[in-house]
Amino acid sequence: MPTEAPDATEATALLARVPYGRLAATLRALPFVAPARHVVLPGALLLRMHAGLGYHRACSGTVVAYGADNLTPASAEQAAGSFWSVQCIGTATIVRPPGEERALFGPTPPSADGEPFEPVYLRLVPELTTVHRFGPSSDNSGERHGQHVASTII
Asked: Of 10, 15, 31, 85, whose Cβ has the fewest other Cβ atoms within 10 Å?
């Protein structure tokens, strides 16, 4: 696998800071957004969703967008005025990950929408990653507020 571009490395590091994000795709030509738990793997994101919602079937084998951010009120980074958002676009595939990868997620929630949580996993190999930063620059590189950075991971 090729070495990640510096911006893709930044996106990976940011995604590793938060456990949840949102998966965006289409179902019968209508857009939907679904919550998902993620872990960062070399060259891919592994997503865990509730099978009972059925969203995974619409995503498998299709191009999807996955986004995560630190835009929650309790974020320590927000207290410092530093906000970020990462979006990955790539093809998702339903997988049955090995036990060591499943263990990275920690315990499953007991339920989703009142029914027992049944995990299903998608592997997303990002082909394009976008990082948006808002707030003061964290370095002396001249980064502007709200700078948009896009890079190809693979």
From this structure: 31
